Every structure is written in C-alpha cells, then in structure tokens.
Protein 1
Amino acid sequence: MSGMNKEQYLGVYVSTLTYDDILADIEQRMAAGKKSTIIAVNPEKLIAASQNPELKQLINAATYQIPDGIGVVLASKLKGGRLASRVTGIDLMERLIALAANKGYRVFLYGAKEEVVQKAKQNLEAKYPGLCIAGYMNGYVNDDGAVVRAIQAANADMLFVALGSPRQELWIRAHLDQLDVKVFQGVGGSFDVFAGRVKRAPKLFRTFGLEWFYRLITDPKRFKRQLALPKFLWKVLTEKEAADHRTAAKERSR
Ligand code: UDP
C-alpha cells in the first residue's frame, strides 16, 4: 500500500481509506496471495505508541491502521488532513464477515470467554446465511501451539483475535508467519458485542460521533481513559512545527 493512503500522527500511521476502499484492497491482496493485518488506533493507543518505540513499530508495520475513535478524525481535521470519518474495528469486522459469507471465505474466531465466543459465532452465523465460521477458540487457553494448530486445521482465510490491546496485536505478529490466514484483525471487545453481552451506543450517538459521550455518561469510570483525547489533540497540534520544519527542510534539499 502506498504512503498516499496514510497520514501520520505522533509518528504513527493512520489509514485514510474508507470501509469500501479497504474491502476492495483486501480482496485484491487475497487474490495476490498477500497477507493483510488490521490494527485499530485511537488517541489512547497513539499516545502509548508515541512513548513506546516497539509498539509504534508494531502498529506502523500493519497493512491498515484504522481510525477507530473520533479523536483521530478530529486531529486530521485540525491539521488539514483528509480523514473524513471513523473506521471502527467492529464495523470493519462485520463487513469482512459479510464479505466472507458472500465469497465463501473461512473465518476463525480467537479470544474472549468460551461462552462469549460461542454465542458470537452463533449470532453471526444466524445473521449472515452462508457464513462459515470454520473454528473458534476462547482467549483463556494458554497454549499458542494448540491455537495455531486449530486455525490451520480450520483452513481459515480470516482470523479475528479478541484478546485486548496490545496483546492481540503481539499475538498476531508472533504467529503471522506460521499461519496460512490471509486477513488478520485484532478486535478487542467485539466478540462481547456480537454475543450481545455489551451494548453499543444508540444509533443517534453513533451517527454524531458521540459514542464516547454515551460511554462517559453510562460508565463515568472511563473519564480517566478519555483524558487521552485532549492530551492527544494537544500533542498533535504542538507537533505541527516539527513536522512543518521537516517538510520544509526536505523541500529545500531537493
Ligand atoms: N480476553 C481474553 N483473554 C485474556 C484477556 C482478555 O480473551 O486473557 C478478552 C476479553 O474476554 C474481552 C477482550 O479480550 O473479550 C478484551 O476486550 P477489551 O474491551 O478489554 O479490549 P480493548 O479493545 O479495550 O483492548
């Protein structure tokens, strides 16, 4: 993928592709036998990555760094970027599931509690006729070898890993080469949502990008986590000079 489809905040890439762009790109990559990895980024993860070179490298090495979180879109708007709207991990996962049902790609679900991953599988199969969830494994088996063998035995094309961040991203990187899977996505708490355990914000809040506000009023404990948003915007705005300086220096040297 060319750098044209990315913006950079605090030294971390963010993809500017829409859901449809990503799906089309993934299909091309699958046809070419290439593996694709998807990591969702938000202000919290971008701040963490800016302070941890290994995490930054891990995120930057992914095929798609999707802007899950309104804070990243805001940053782009403030800096005159091209990011128009969020691409959330859960919505992208659901679109990939729909694609899999259509095209006959085999899906594997790895992570969450046993009853959660079972229920997620059941609900997704009921919603998407023709979907083949060829295997699943809960996220509390501490035997990576067994998980890898199960995924290979299922002959999976798409793997969704729900272990939380950055554990799921580290797991994907560690096992990427051992697996014949083509699409890898770390999906955090998404299985809990598909299982009906955790409710998403009502449509109205989501439409206006106010999912964070809904979470804040229904779960005030999250306030501390949400401080990442103003902190992130501040960091991005004060990083401006350095970035402009670099561009100017590069242009001068041409
Ligand atoms: N989880 C797991 N194994 C573990 C720890 C967590 O499978 O050892 C699962 C947990 O059950 C939940 C998901 O990982 O389904 C974490 O979701 P969370 O919303 O905390 O992730 P985030 O997106 O916030 O990183």
Protein 2
Amino acid sequence: MTDCIFCRIVAGEVPADEVVSSELSFAFRDLSPQAPTHVLVIPRQHITHAGDVGPEHAAAVADLLVTATRVAEIDGLTERGYRLVFNVGEDAGNSVPHLHLHVLGGRQMGWPPWSG
Ligand code: DGP
C-alpha cells in the first residue's frame, strides 16, 4: 500500500532506525519512544491491525514474536524483561493502520498497564 507509512518504511522509501529484520518482519525504533527501548516490529505484508489477523497470517504473526525476541536480545532485555503490546482501535490509541508490535523495555513497566 503506497499510502501506508509503515509499508513505505519496509520498502525503504521512508528512513527508519532499523534494529533487525527477517524475511517476514522489520523492526525499527519508534519515533516517539516511551521507554529506553521502544521498537516496533511490523510484518512486511500489509495487515491493518491485530483484529484483522486470520489463519492465513499465522506465519507472519509468529515471525513478529520471533523477531521481538531478537530485539530483546539485541537490546539486552532478556534478563530483566520487557513488554509486548498490540493496540487495536481508537480506544487503545492505535494511530498507524499497519499491524505493529511494540517492544518496550529498559525500565520498570507499570501494572496494571493503564497505570502508565
Ligand atoms: P500505535 O499508537 O500503536 O498506533 O503506535 C504507532 C507508533 O508508531 C507510535 O508510537 C509512533 C510510531 N510512529 C508513527 N509514525 C512513525 C514513523 O514514521 N517512524 C517511526 N519510527 N515511528 C513512527
């Protein structure tokens, strides 16, 4: 999709601070980081959001998790832990309509998540 900012990042048309990539996924640092590590892992294929995932996306979605683990290893988060987040829809604050997994770490995360 040419009007999708994350498709344009995958295509190399818009610059991004890449962390790691795979055949199915691309991981890059969030423009507006909410933690010392804030990386977005996206499928190369355009999928709108987590609520649109179907069985046909199984490999792409599994690869997001595998790639998120690679991000955690690269940023040294494995021991202390990290948070993985999919936002879906307006109430969750989903702003970019291309599936993305937030990888957040490097600080203590609030729990419950609505506490910050
Ligand atoms: P969400 O609220 O779940 O839709 O998160 C979208 C995130 O994407 C938000 O944290 C900011 C980030 N973002 C939006 N546009 C860009 C961009 O062009 N480059 C990068 N690196 N991040 C972006």
